[in-house]
Sequence to fold (68 residues):
Amino acid sequence: MQVELSAREVAQLLAALRNWQTDALNEDLVDLFAGHFEDHEPLTDDEIDALCERLNFGGEQVIKGAAY
Fold:
């Protein structure tokens, strides 16, 4: 599946992912967002780092239509 994201949308996703990492240090976010994790475990910090790297440096292969 390929999703088109604008640069603004990518920025928002990156901020949300980094915020998750920070907030998860202090509270159990899985319980707060249980509906999103019924079928899948949340990403680990290392997996979030890798995803952020893909979003930052993936170019057209990952973020179709985003201009950097």
Remarks:
- The radius of gyration is 13 Å.
- The chain has one domain: 7-61.
- Helices lie at 7-23, 29-32, 45-57.
- Residues 23 and 29 are 8 Å apart (CA to CA).
